[in-house]
Amino acid sequence: MTLYISEKAKLGKNVHVGINSIIEANAEIGDNCFIEENVIIRSGTKVGKSTTICANSIIGEHLMDFYSNHQSKHQLEIGENSLIRSGTIIYSNTRIGDNFQTGHHATIRENCQIGNHVSVGTYTDIQGYCQIGNYVRFHSNVFVTQHSIIDDYVWIFPHVVFTDDPIPPSNYGLSIHIHSYASVAAGSLLLPGVELGEHCLVAAGAVVTKDVPPYKLAIGNPAKIEKDVREIIDKETGEKAYPWPERFSRAMPWEEQ
Amino acid sequence: MTLYISEKAKLGKNVHVGINSIIEANAEIGDNCFIEENVIIRSGTKVGKSTTICANSIIGEHLMDFYSNHQSKHQLEIGENSLIRSGTIIYSNTRIGDNFQTGHHATIRENCQIGNHVSVGTYTDIQGYCQIGNYVRFHSNVFVTQHSIIDDYVWIFPHVVFTDDPIPPSNYGLSIHIHSYASVAAGSLLLPGVELGEHCLVAAGAVVTKDVPPYKLAIGNPAKIEKDVREIIDKETGEKAYPWPERFSRAMPWEEQ
Amino acid sequence: MTLYISEKAKLGKNVHVGINSIIEANAEIGDNCFIEENVIIRSGTKVGKSTTICANSIIGEHLMDFYSNHQSKHQLEIGENSLIRSGTIIYSNTRIGDNFQTGHHATIRENCQIGNHVSVGTYTDIQGYCQIGNYVRFHSNVFVTQHSIIDDYVWIFPHVVFTDDPIPPSNYGLSIHIHSYASVAAGSLLLPGVELGEHCLVAAGAVVTKDVPPYKLAIGNPAKIEKDVREIIDKETGEKAYPWPERFSRAMPWEEQ
Hints:
3 copies of one chain form a homotrimer.
Chain A: E1 4-5, E2 10-11, E3 16-17, E4 22-23, E5 28-29, E6 34-35, E7 40-41, E8 45-47, E9 52-53, E10 58-61, H1 66-69, E11 76-78, E12 83-84, E13 89-91, E14 94-96, E15 101-102, E16 107-108, E17 113-114, E18 119-120, E19 125-126, E20 131-132, E21 137-138, E22 143-144, E23 149-150, E24 155-156, E25 161-162, E26 177-178, E27 183-184, E28 189-190, E29 195-196, E30 201-202, E31 207-208, E32 216-219, E33 224-228
Parallel strand pairs in A: 1-4, 2-5, 3-6, 4-7, 5-8, 6-9, 7-10, 8-11, 9-12, 10-13, 11-14, 13-16, 14-17, 15-18, 16-19, 17-20, 18-21, 19-22, 20-23, 21-24, 23-26, 24-27, 25-28, 26-29, 27-30, 28-31, 30-32
Antiparallel strand pairs in A: 32-33
């Protein structure tokens, strides 16, 4: 078995490292971590205890400055009890909380602040400089522009696309802000600078061209904002479907154990 | 040359295994298989004869239960004469027929039943628990929700997005059923629970909010269902374009050799 | 440290090759190239000087004919000063100019001619047989059909989808032609055979069903073409936003140093 663990890397107790994995100098791996095969952990990465990093992932990917002088000077922090699935790439100079999860081939760029209990799906592409709260869930193939702000308990479903440029190409970057408990359904498109209010719902396939007030539904292309989400009925139960935390608790802090 | 083939793996005759590939215990590789470099074949995987597995693929990816006890107990079966292109990830506990193909970085999750002559394109993401017939073709970057049912000879073009949740987030999963010979054009979005009838056509960019009857065309956002596909004319020939099997045979069983 | 460099590969001066990388016979690597870990460079690939190839990339990927006889006979050329980010797959039988860049997990297929200063974003999928000019920028997750023609200084933003089949499935392939200085905003869909004129703008989320004349704006689903782009005002400056080269120069040849 061939391993490439730098003598200057710091491994905790009971760490498993798979075949052909590379752990560079000044990486710190917490106790009970499980690292599969062909993983690259770059210098300056700190991984919390009991985290799993699956095959072919690159953790602490180089920023652009590396390619001019081949020196790494950035740091990445990933919390405890996380599960980084195979093929994930996470840049350095980012900080991620505990109980983090990714799908396959996800990419997360530099200068992000990501809270606890966040999940980033397969092929989701977070472009960097984002502030992401706790219990935020990105499903598969979401595109998140730089400088996005996403508060707690936000759901972003597959193939949602953020934008930030009102007159492409330009040097502007109008950031999107999604407030807590908002839910953005699959295949919707968010135009530059829109703000989605607390508990709002963006319908599948909507093209959101202006702010969505709290508790409102945005639907269509371009999206119309009329209905209050509290008027939407769960057809199975005949009861109100929103605010969703009143009927949905899976993996949320209010879940009964 | 470094190889990591378990002594408990079972390799057929004339199997090529590339540099740095890992074949775990209780994997079975059929005669004349060609396995490129950096491939991981997990325990419990059975690959039919004359199948090619390209570089950086993970075949028999762990299910969630692996991460609690680090024991593999599932099985994956892939048929003969298949071509798994580089970067593909296929979970265990799935069964795939013969003459299967994938594009690059495709992901196929657990508990799928996939027939013969199926093709899954680059970045396509099949979320698991799906029933997929024979001669089904997924082009690039299709998102397929759990529990989808797709019959034979169905075509799904690039960036088609399935959905399953009528009141996101919820614990519902309204599955989509696509009947034989249906064709779903690029960039369309299928809302939860819709059923697409035999020989129907979903136009590019359509947002399908209700069932499409057999032989009907769905077009627009939200999709309108009016025209019969048998009224559509092939502009090149001046003849009827549908049902498509009457004019198209490439790689289909009715192709003349 | 384990390296797999063929004795028949030709490496220039001061080439760095990372752990576990494979360089096959008849590959040529220019002076001062930097090749990270787990890279595969196939036979017949020629890489210009001062190019960086990041981890887990496959450069010179096999065409379909390889899988019948396991012989490589194609050639790939990549220019100088390029940066191929991790997880990229580039097929052989393609030619790419200088100052090329890719994002992560990008895929570029065979028989493409790509000019200088081109950038191909994360998850972007170029299907082959394309002619791409100079200073063309594909952002993340663009799908480009075979035989597309894209002239100089064209911008294609995230999740833009090209199509080529007017009666899917068929053997037609109506190619898309995008003229110089056109800008195609995020999440738009281009129907088969459309031609986008010089300096035109396709708005985010548009479904383009017919040709867009030079300097026109296409917006909506289906896209309407009415306004001239020279009527669009940059809200920050109060000045005309288009033609964009009059106000935007970053990384363009007219940028003042």
